[in-house]
Amino acid sequence: MNSESPSNLDPLDPAAISTNAIAVENLNFSWKANQVVLCDCSLTVPKGEFWMLLGTNGSGKSTLLKILAGLLEKESGTVEVAGKVGYVFQNPDHQLVMPTVGADVAFGLVDEDISYLHTRMRVERSLRDVGLGNFQRRPIYTLSGGQKQRVALAGALARNSEILLLDEPTALLDRDRQSELVETVRKLVKENHLTALWVTHRLDELDFADGAFLLQDGKVVDRGDPIRLKQLLKQKVT
Ligand SMILES: Nc1ncnc2c1ncn2[C@@H]1O[C@H](COP(=O)(O)OP(=O)(O)OP(=O)(O)O)[C@@H](O)[C@H]1O
Q: Residues 6 or more apart from 14 whose CB is under 8 A from it?
């Protein structure tokens, strides 16, 4: 990232809010008294970009994503999320609730005021977009982990989510399925002008990112060029 990147704008600057899908400033959160999970955490993710979030176990990555998704209340700070959020969990078995692929994706649309035909069109489109065009009638229990993650992703796309929050979506996948999923998400982000924030521990995934954040003790301690961060973190573990 160069110094003129939109991500380097002050997140409280109105210009930043219009160019960023996510703008977080001085966010604080703790689960219990005398514990700090997120501490003056600040970050911005530009619209239309695919950013990754790295950090050691317990550094606050999942907590941050849950606050961005509105699943948790922040304690203090500013959180701006400019668009509809879709969330993909690490374990798709915690997310998929219906017996078949098509029914599961359609289930996410029950709150939307759209016709049966429109629902079917959205389900078909989103399954096609994740490479599962022929899977509508397949029982969920017959799917691989990678296919289940794609169904979860299709659910987010069917709801016309503009911002995808993905919490270690490849943690349970083998290397081939991992590459397929990260490539699919990058393609979807770029083709549909979505924004994604992807939590990972796998450094090779940084090759697909537009930028990355490093979270440490609940604070963003480094951000920017994903390849620079990849080299930096590789040196730390070797
Ligand atoms: N539901 C919860 N109740 C109480 N404490 C929690 C809860 N969820 C997380 N924590 C604590 O908050 C801290 C941050 O957890 P979080 O899951 O956000 O970290 P993380 O960076 O996503 O870790 P990992 O890489 O292991 O998934 C940890 O100390 C964790 O034990």
A: none
